[in-house]
Specification:
The complex is a heterotrimer of chains A (about 300), B (about 240) and C (about 280).
Chain A (H helix, E strand, L loop, with lengths): L1 H33 L6 H17 L4 H24 L8 H22 L4 E2 L9 E4 L2 E4 H23 L1 H11 L1 H6 L4 H27 L1 E2 L3 H16 L6 H20 L4 H15 L9 H6 L2
Antiparallel strand pairs in A: 1-4, 2-3
Helix pairs in contact in A: 1-5, 1-8, 1-9, 1-10, 2-3, 2-4, 2-8, 2-9, 3-8, 5-6, 5-8, 6-8, 9-10, 9-11, 10-11
Chain B lengths: L2 E12 L2 E12 L3 E5 L6 H8 L7 E6 L2 E2 L5 H7 L1 E3 L12 H7 L15 H13 L15 H14 L4 E5 L7 H16 L3 E5 L3 H7 L2 E6 L2 E6 L1 H6 L1 H11 L1
Parallel strand pairs in B: 3-8, 3-9, 6-7, 7-8
Antiparallel strand pairs in B: 1-2, 1-4, 4-5, 9-10
Chain C lengths: L3 H24 L8 H19 L3 H25 L2 H21 L9 E2 L6 H18 L3 H11 L1 H6 L4 H27 L1 E2 L6 H14 L6 H15 L7 H15 L7 H13 L1
Antiparallel strand pairs in C: 1-2
The chains are: A mainly alpha (about 300), B alpha/beta (about 240), C mainly alpha (about 280).
Chain lengths: ~300, ~240, ~280
Amino acid sequence: MGVSIFIQQVLNGLTLGAVYTLIALAFSLVMGILGILNLAISEIFMIGAFVGFSLITAGVPVWIALIGAMIAAALVSIVIARIGYEPLRNANHITPMLSTLGFSMILQNLATNTWGSDPMQLTLEGWLETRFSFGLVSLSVVQIVVFVVTVGLCVLTALLIQRTDIGRALRAVAENREISRILGVRPRRMILVAFALSGLLAGAAGVLVGLHYSVITPYIGVEIGLKAIAVMIVGGATNIWGALLAGPLIGILEVLTVAYGGAAMRDFVVYGFMIVILLVRPQGLLGGSSKTSGGRV
Amino acid sequence: MSNVLEFRGINQSFGGIKALSDVSFDLAKGSITGAIGPNGAGKTTIFNVITGAYRPDSGSVKLNGQELLGLAPYRIARAGISRTFQNIRLFPSMTVWDHMLLSQAPRTPMLGRLIPARKVTERAEEMMELFGITGVRDRIAVSLPYGVQRKVEMARAYAMEPQLLLLDEPVAGMNHDEADHLREVLLGLRGRGLSIFIIEHDMRFMMALCDEIHVMNYGRKIAGGKPSEIQSDPAVIAAYLGEDA
Amino acid sequence: MLSSYQAGLVADGSILLLGALSVYVILSTGQLSLGNAGFMAIGAYLSSWLTVSVGMPLTLAIVISAAVSAVFGLIIGFPALRLKGLYLAMATIGFGEIVRTFFLNFEPTGGAGGFSGMEHVPLWYILGWTVFTLGCVMVTERTRWWLEIRAVNDDELAAGLVGMNTTVTKLMAFMTGAAIAAVAGALFAHQTLYIEPASFGFERSTEFVLAMILGGSSLAAGSIVGAALLILLPELLRDFVDWRIAIFGALLVAVLLVRRQGVLDRNLFGLARLWRRVN
């Protein structure tokens, strides 16, 4: 009995962790390549959730809704890059972060005015409703969708960054913007690529969260999105793969805290974990030397 | 004559590259000493070791007999060593006057820093007079010409009432007249009992100013002595002066 | 006389001003805190508990809350010595969230249900604290203490080499900011008479930052302009009340793009001084 509840919790934790992984990856793509914290990612994620929700409610197949939400989120992200980041890219790191904070306010307000601030409920139909039971442990189709989409997107991102010319150019910009320019990379274009990629991932995470909880509000950006910053830090902010480890880790940690410590304790544990990591190992679990994490800021 | 600074057996390496190999020298109290050598010879590294920015692998640095290694940079500064930088580091938001006040703050008690005492403002005026920057008192320091900024940086360093002043390429960016004026100023400071240690490429300036010169090459000290001795030292001519000729 | 509605606006503005000031003091050393709502929560809860449950006079309760909050500022300030820029900002977000969830779970002060029973303070009392605190910061700005704070912001390494203990300066700034935020929290609690953890979330922290950046981040007087803007603008733009947050967001972006130093800045005052000298 106790074991199967535990396994169930771990499965639920992995689902949540998958969502965290995607958002944290979105954060660390911009952080790792451009060295800035794009606070608006948490709201882009929320916008993605609402666009996906609206499309599904309108009868669009889930896969298409997912892609639609990703594209919408990427477009928002590109607008932010153009207006909120590019003109400020030579300022100190705090200034562009503040401008992305301005955009998060705009996006949240936009969402409350467009979709209302009451929770929006999604009723899943057909195959999405199915649950598989293994004794006392059950796994829903939605959870499987979350896992598959997350793993798929992570693999695609990895391939893009490691194997393609765009990925090489991104890494060159991350290493040294001036030298990359000499090597023929156009940093301005790479800024847009990084923001767009990060928007795609955040948008996908939004749809997945909507499917998983089947309820969303305009405040999930602050509730869930901000926690992805903790995930990024725990994994290592300048190593974008840190999120793959830290996402599931924190997802499980959070769900177990809810199960055994009370629902209200969850944020306490997650942010406490983040602060401990910042103090003990500021470069994160998978980060490089502490020197690189210091050099970025 | 006693020594203000004893720099003994310093080894400093960065990831396998030896920046300083067993470098030793003494600075006599009330003297002007120079360090010359090609770029990358380790001169600025010596400054960084003295001021506590680097922790050397071995050796000892003593100011008037007090060990400096292991002290935080601000403690070394308070012990009586101040410096300027090769690429000037002034505070971008501050006027010249602010710099003069700020550099005296650490030596004043906490409450005394609320309102500058007359002693402090008088010294600030005196510093600006000494380095000829009184006319730019209320200008933002970093908006001034390069040569003037160097003077502000030196005035800031000297306002701290140091026992030893470290100057990293002070005449870079100055014309002949300014350099000559600076030499007079520095000789005047020596007259007041200050010890000065200078890194500089301008040989004409150094030969006429220094009491003693140490020559660095590839992280080693290859010669040291009076300017006239240095000029005729075969190792120096081969390693350094020879390259110029 | 002010109507009670207007008095409420002035009180809100004063509290917001103090919040902006708490961010300003810390930012002056080059550190951005996105968690000052946490210090505000400490001040609000502690002072309310002291006045309601212990029966302490409010002024004493505020002083004690500010001191306790300063100790927390010291604790959160220590990581600040190792963390720079964005990492510090993220750590302070975490701190703010931890404080909020602490009070969410802490039943002695009501947990999620909130805490009440405070007595309403008159407007002059709030204004008194605001003027006093703002005055202290503005006077300090004219001393060499403040030069040290600016030196840490300008070039920490060079500040160390002119003999400044930059560690102490940064910690002092954090403690001062924490204390000011606690005063804001205490006044807020005794003005609204009901506090709950949700009042001290991330949005509150960002509101402080917003007021400070809009008003002018290079001098304390900027917080007056910032707080006034944030309070008055919604009054002037009643027709767009639904878009209030978005307008502020757009204003923030616009200020960063066009006039990064905010509405007021140090040079504006410098010009005024020059003008006086010329005449």
